[in-house]
Amino acid sequence: MYDPKLLKFPTSQSYHFILYASMATLKTKLFLLYLLSTSFDLQHNKMYDTDEYGHRLQIFTENKRIIDHHNAGNHSFKMGLNKFSDMKFEEFRKFFLLTEPQNCSATKGSHVSKTGPYPEFVDWRLKGNFVSPVKNQGYCGSCWAFSTTGCLESVNAITIGKLILLSEQQLIDCSRDFKNHGCLGGVPSQAFEYIKYNKGLMTEEDYPYKGHDATCHFEPALAAVYVLDVVNITRYDEKAMVDAVAWLNPVTFSFDVMADFMHYKEGVYTSTQCKNTADRVNHAVLAVGYGTEENGMPYWIVKNSWGTDWGMDGYFLIERGKNMCGLATCSTYPLCTV
Question: Residue 108: its pLDDT value, please?
Answer without folding.
Answer: 60
